[in-house]
Amino acid sequence: CKSTEDNPIKFNWKCCLVILKMLCVRAAPKLYGIVLDAGSSRTTVYLYQWPAEKENNTGVVTQTNMCQVKGPGISEMNKESWKNLMKCMGIITETVPLSQRNSTSIFLGATAGMRLLHQKNEAAANIILVALQEYLHSLPFDFQNASIISGQEEGLYGWITVNYLMGNFLEVRLRARTQGSLDLGGASTQIAFAAPDNTRGKDLVQVALYGYEYNIYTHSFLCYGKNEAEKKVLAELKSSNWSHINHPCYPAGYNITMKASDVFGSECTKSQAPAQNGPERNITFVGQSDPAMCKRLVRRIFDLNSCHGKENCSFEGVYQPPVTGDFMAYAGFYHTAKALNVSGSNSLEKFNATMRSVCSMDWKTVKVHLKSVCYSANYVHTLLVDGYKFNSDNWENLNFKKEVHIAWSLGYMLAQSNMIPAEAKLLKLPIPNIAFAALLFILSALIIITFMFLIITLVRFCY
Ligand SMILES: *[C@@H]1O[C@H](CO)[C@@H](O)[C@H](O)[C@H]1NC(C)=O
Ligand SMILES: *[C@@H]1O[C@H](CO)[C@@H](O)[C@H](O)[C@H]1NC(C)=O
Ligand SMILES: *[C@@H]1O[C@H](CO)[C@@H](O)[C@H](O)[C@H]1NC(C)=O
Ligand SMILES: *[C@@H]1O[C@H](CO)[C@@H](O)[C@H](O)[C@H]1NC(C)=O
Ligand SMILES: *[C@@H]1O[C@H](CO)[C@@H](O)[C@H](O)[C@H]1NC(C)=O
Ligand SMILES: *[C@@H]1O[C@H](CO)[C@@H](O)[C@H](O)[C@H]1NC(C)=O
Ligand SMILES: *[C@@H]1O[C@H](CO)[C@@H](O)[C@H](O)[C@H]1NC(C)=O
Ligand SMILES: *[C@@H]1O[C@H](CO)[C@@H](O)[C@H](O)[C@H]1NC(C)=O
Ligand SMILES: *[C@@H]1O[C@H](CO)[C@@H](O)[C@H](O)[C@H]1NC(C)=O
């Protein structure tokens, strides 16, 4: 540690702290894991890190780096997006210390975009997966798997992530209250929450974590992600004049022309494609700013009739026990609430009122990137109220939260690498290495100071 030039005698504390920190980091080796979240509209690479000797503890895995791959999702991969993927993997590789690379697991999980492609063209989906497997295998990491994960897995991993990050598994002596997980992606949406123990049914899974068994209800609705649902809404609109279709959710003064294939080319809308029109045909949607009509239109894409007269049913005839407890609503849910200025926890009345006011605004008042905000507000409102059966009493249990680390990928990595043991762990007070070193440092400093003080007093006293 060199002393500073202007004051050669003064001890350089900053530099010493840096060295101390480096020694601590060296003393506590870190392990790493990589997950590629291959979503419908984009791929995100997450790098996680945890102290080696605490592998199975709760709350020790943190996200250290993240890279968003530019371009479309892997279901539409082209030369450009391959290049972007490689760029991201280069950045992530640089972050992992050389000596740790070959012990770093790497996984790729593809979600609804690839589920849809698999439905449409299984061979094409497999070709993409094999190419990705080969590429990831060629990297200097311990390649594990590249596959399409099921909607149920996606929901469950989201729930695990939320509760792991909230520290809800930390409580060892009592089974902690857990939070529900609401995820809204581009092509699918997931709900997952702990149902009462005696509830049994199709979408219930029992998971054992840190010594407790949880009864988790989880369901994923394919085609009910924000983007696919918007296509379903467009496909609902009928008109005799294709160059002028009124859209009540778009702002007045705004119109958009798109190819018929952009609306009807998806697996989610192809059954509604009009027989006599080619995919190249142009369709123009003309904004109306009509809140009441928009609400009715968005409601039409939900099949609520097949739940009619049934207890404990969301929509499309899907069984769902009544929602209980607090919920974390992230991804598309958060982005929608943010655009309405109602993120965090608010009342349903407030959501309603903001939604109505945004839906009445014309194109000049609504900001450019918010052209779809009225649609997405109505979509989120209908899904939560008419679908999942949230009401004005329990709406405040919803927390529309931006938590950069929330994604199913963390729960997926924890589960795939057996880092969440089923059995209980001994109750231990976790003292991180750095905190422990700091404590030791302060204690010894105190002792030295006291000692020196005694000597000085003694010397003063003697002379
Ligand atoms: C974590 O758990 C796995 C399986 O239960 C075990 O093999 C491994 O040794 C544990 N690691 C640590 C650091 O306790
Ligand atoms: C990982 O790499 C280190 C050197 O960087 C080497 O000593 C070790 O044997 C490798 N382990 C495996 C499993 O390949
Ligand atoms: C890869 O994942 C798929 C789907 O989750 C699973 O069926 C398969 O067994 C996994 N393969 C390996 C080698 O883990
Ligand atoms: C269709 O709408 C366009 C634009 O509003 C209009 O110019 C055209 O006359 C309409 N065609 C028919 C057949 O109504
Ligand atoms: C669409 O908007 C443009 C201006 O942005 C306008 O010139 C055109 O007439 C509009 N088309 C329809 C069908 O309203
Ligand atoms: C659709 O519109 C584009 C321009 O927006 C035009 O180039 C194309 O020819 C149109 N297609 C048809 C079938 O009218
Ligand atoms: C619906 O859920 C409630 C609360 O969990 C339960 O008491 C009731 O028996 C359920 N009804 C049916 C038909 O499953
Ligand atoms: C949200 O608040 C910001 C500033 O606080 C404002 O500019 C914006 O118009 C508001 N949006 C809505 C939809 O009320
Ligand atoms: C929200 O608005 C809808 C109509 O848009 C109405 O049916 C509902 O009762 C309202 N809910 C609350 C809590 O204000």
Automatic annotation (TrEMBL):
One Gene Ontology biological process: nucleoside diphosphate catabolic process
Per its UniProt entry, which superkingdom is the organism in? Eukaryota
Protein biosynthesis recorded as keyword: no
Q: Where is the signal peptide?
A: 1-27
| Residues annotated to bind ATP | 186-190
The cross-references to InterPro entries, in alphabetical order and at most eight, read: GDA1_CD39_NTPase
| Keyword Cell inner membrane attached | no
Q: Which UniProt keywords apply?
A: ATP-binding, Hydrolase, Membrane, Nucleotide-binding, Signal, Transmembrane, Transmembrane helix
Report the active site residues: 154 (proton acceptor)
Q: Tell me one Pfam family matched here.
A: GDA1_CD39
Q: Can you quote a single GO CC term?
A: plasma membrane
Record field: transmembrane: 434-459
| Alphabetized GO MF terms | ATP binding; GDP phosphatase activity; ribonucleoside triphosphate phosphatase activity; UDP phosphatase activity
Q: Which family does the entry's similarity section mention? A: Belongs to the GDA1/CD39 NTPase family.
* Name this polypeptide is given: Ectonucleoside triphosphate diphosphohydrolase 3
The species is Electrophorus electricus
